[in-house]
Design goal:
With 435 residues, this protein is of the alpha+beta class. The chain has helices at residues 2-20, 28-32, 35-52, 65-79, 104-108, 115-131, 136-146, 150-153, and strands at residues 176-177, 183-184, 202-213, 216-227, 231-242, 251-264, 277-291, 310-322, 327-336, 355-367, 370-377, 391-401, 404-414, 424-434. Helix content is 22%, strand content 34%. β4 (216-227) and β5 form a beta hairpin. α1 (2-20) runs parallel beside α4 (65-79) and α1 packs across α6. 46% of the residues are buried.
Length: 435
């Protein structure tokens, strides 16, 4: 029983003590929370959600919830810039004012709190604020103060080998699936690892994406797995087709195998640091040949001028989430010689060496379930028959729950070949399901 009480104390005060560290000097957040009365309602709802949450409710039996409620109200008020002072002290793992004051890490060292537990509290707090009409902007500012305390509060040792999915990460923090299968935006990979598995677990997803322009369509289907929020493996097949004569029979397929490793940083937890999350990735691409142009004697991309029908892309991505601004920014630098992502082969008569190409993504976190943004991806120009231009899109990604996301976008793919100089524009739709 005492172990449960200690764990419950640690979990609840994870939010309380975290918010004590850096209260805002102005009262804008305090007013957005509804003042003292609004904070009381939020805290009441927050604790109701915690006590009903199957992920953590069993840890709060026989615990003095009214006392914690009062301390949290004081804490939220002070942090938000309101006229309050936190009167409680966390002494020797109890709340009775007896014992020696200890720092955050030593207080939680024996409580074995996991990332999934920490994130469950954050999600319950988000829901409580949402139910009381608090704006996403103000909610994110509160969560931004809680997030950095993960470094001291999460004290459970990571298992030697993750065994099952825990769905423990915050909603939307795995991104969506790109047209090449990796986790990120629609056309550019991000440093985020796909899925909702924490460092103690793993997660995975399957996706189907379709891009439809005036004259062509591109379908991508694939699966991806994220392990221990550190390693990502993905497999995808692209299917490119012509829709109008004389290319209505054109079909080119490509297989892509991806690997991504997180190197440093935490996009969500490091709200008090400038360092972004950084990941290094690789994609092996194998073109499966061309069908539908047999009458012209063209069955392989090399016959269009490409030097190879397979190749590698290497990329370095950096992702930063500023919760206080409800903003995500990603920058990717890709080393590649792929023509139209490899659909038209690799290298060509205009160049056959690896080029560094920048990619940029920006997203506004409009709601905990919705991100709205834009992406830009520059590409090499290696083929004389392919006056390749940059890709860009504007998108909205909806995350109704952790098992599904839907992304819709308007995409501009530039010009595909000199035989059809029309700029290809159209819609992009992607469905991702996972665990």
């Amino acid at each position: 029983m005492r172990k449960k009480t200690l764990l419950a104390t640690g979990l609840l005060l994870a939010s309380s003590l975290a918010l004590a560290q850096t209260p805002y000097p102005e009262d804008a957040t305090y007013r957005a929370l509804g003042g003292k009365e609004g904070i009381k309602k939020i805290t009441d709802t927050f604790l109701e959600l915690v006590l009903a949450d199957p992920r953590i409710k069993d840890n709060f039996a026989d615990f003095d919830i009214p006392q914690v409620n009062q301390r949290l109200q004081e804490q939220f008020c002070e942090y938000a810039g309101g006229p309050c002072k936190y009167t409680g002290k966390y002494r020797d793992k109890t709340m009775d004012g007896v014992g020696t004051v200890r720092d955050m890490k030593s207080v939680h060292i024996d409580l074995k709190i996991t990332d999934a537990m920490f994130n469950a509290l954050a999600e319950d707090l988000q829901l409580a604020m949402e139910r009381h009409g608090v704006s996403t902007y103000a909610s994110n500012r509160l969560i931004a103060k809680l997030a950095p305390m993960q470094r001291d509060i999460v004290t459970a040792a990571a298992p030697p080998a993750p065994t099952r999915p825990d769905m423990g990460r915050l909603l939307a923090t795995g991104g969506v699936s790109t047209v090449e299968g990796s986790g990120g935006g629609g056309i550019s990979p991000w440093a985020l690892i796909t899925g909702y598995g924490t460092r103690d677990s793993w997660g995975g997803n399957a996706h189907y994406t379709r891009v439809q322009t005036q004259d062509y369509s591109l379908g991508t289907r694939g699966v991806a797995i994220g392990v221990a929020d550190r390693l990502e493996l993905s497999v995808a097949r692209q299917d490119f087709q012509g829709d109008l004569a004389p290319l209505n029979l054109l079909r080119i397929q490509q297989d892509i195998v991806g690997l991504k490793v997180k190197l440093t940083g935490e996009a969500v937890y490091d709200q008090d640091r400038a360092m972004p999350q950084v990941a290094l990735g690789m994609m092996y691409k194998k073109n499966k040949g061309i069908s539908g142009l047999g009458a012209l004697g063209v069955t392989n991309v090399k016959q269009l001028g490409a030097k190879d029908d397979s190749g590698y892309d290497y990329y370095l991505s950096a992702t930063k989430i500023w919760l206080e601004r409800s903003l995500l920014v990603n920058g990717t630098l890709r080393a590649t010689k792929a023509n139209q992502m490899g659909i038209l082969g690799f290298g060509g008569d205009q160049g056959d060496h690896v080029k560094l190409q920048p990619e940029i993504s920006v997203a506004w976190l409009a709601h905990r379930t919705l991100a709205i943004g834009a992406e830009y991806r520059r590409k090499p120009h290696n083929l004389g028959v392919d006056p390749e231009k940059a890709y860009y899109d504007v998108f909205a990604a909806w995350f109704p729950n952790k098992n599904m996301s839907v992304t819709a976008a308007y995409a501009n793919l530039g010009t595909i070949t000199v035989f059809n100089p029309k700029t290809q524009k159209g819609w992009y739709l992607s469905l991702q399901v996972g665990m």
